Amino acid sequence: MILIKNGYLIDPKSGMEGNYDVLAEKDVIAKIAKNIETPGKGCRVIDAEGLLVAPGLVDVHVHFREPGFTQKEDIFTGAASAVKGGFTTVVLMANTRPPVDNTETLGHVLERGGQTDIHVLSCANVTMGMKGKTLTPMEDLARAGAVGFTDDGIPLLDEEIVRQAMREAARLDMPISFHEEHPGLIGNNGIHHGKASAHFGIKGSPREAEIVMVERDLKLALETGACIDIQHISTKEAVELVRQAKKQGGNIHAEATPHHFTLTEEAVIEYGTLAKMNPPLREEEDRLEIIRGLVDGTIDVIATDHAPHTVQEKEKSFAEAPSGIIGLETALALGITELVDEGFLTMKQLLCKMTANPAAMYHLNAGYLAEGGPADIILIDTAAEMIPGEYASKSSNTPFTGWSLKGRVRAVLCRGRVIHEDW
Prior knowledge:
Distance between the termini: 20 Å
Number of strands: 18
Structural class: alpha/beta
Helix content: 25-40%
Shape: globular
């Protein structure tokens, strides 16, 4: 039994906000009230004076690289990285080796995830072998525990396959997420076709590569009624397309990463391959439109796209190095620093996009604080400095190392048990 006293609680799902104590008993929240008396012996009391009490964060877009690429990350180090960043629920992408296009691989991933301190869930692939030609047995994978579907990492080019996948996902009432970059329009991935690509003397990835895919998939979503997630949105045009599609109805969601609302292509020139990612960092007007999309609700989810790579891989030439950065340990602090402290979002709004909204999209019992609900709770010092540098992840591929950010996760509870403390 754990009693959290004297903290300032925000639950974005219910709108509850204020000075409340929280009593966790076993794996659920037993009581939320003002001035709860200590039940007696055997109850640990945590004084949260000056701290924000919030639901454990939910990230529905992470890569833990297992099976197949465990030199970059594995499910246990990925979970440790999540814990340090305040995440108690994560959804894994399915672009592993072998990919999660069968129940055996899915079972392995979920079994390993079940041995961690947090809730590690997984998507399954949309197509067999991520080849974009034949649908996976989506219903079988759903029965085996998949919480959604995606071929993230490889865009789906066949419109009819996408239509079929959306119809099946709609029938199963499960989300389907899309990596929106048309490879036929890209000269070199990971870098915007513009100032940054000119600096490196390569063609790069034009904004049109994202726009044409987003336009197609929004049309199909409205046609099929599927719940779709436009992943890691990067262009101002794509934000506007989502904004207009949402006005037409449908079950449409979009996610932004902290790196896309914080950085521009200038960072690629400064940090090189540490800022190489798919889709790439773009121009300042794109970054500002992403923020506007977060403000007006067009973009309803913040997800990290945590993508670990080894030092050796990132030390290759820009054209050869893989795309992606780690993000779990910096996401909350970047949200506080770049969005809340700059006056774009309230803390409740930021938390909603990192807890209740992603949980709702994936139908997860997570991302909220309520009596009888899961005892997945984080304590945040929103004013404390956080300087990224010592990572729980196996990897350190991020341009944010050494930055002075605001917001430290002081404690993490998952299933009513303290799994991280930083006092």
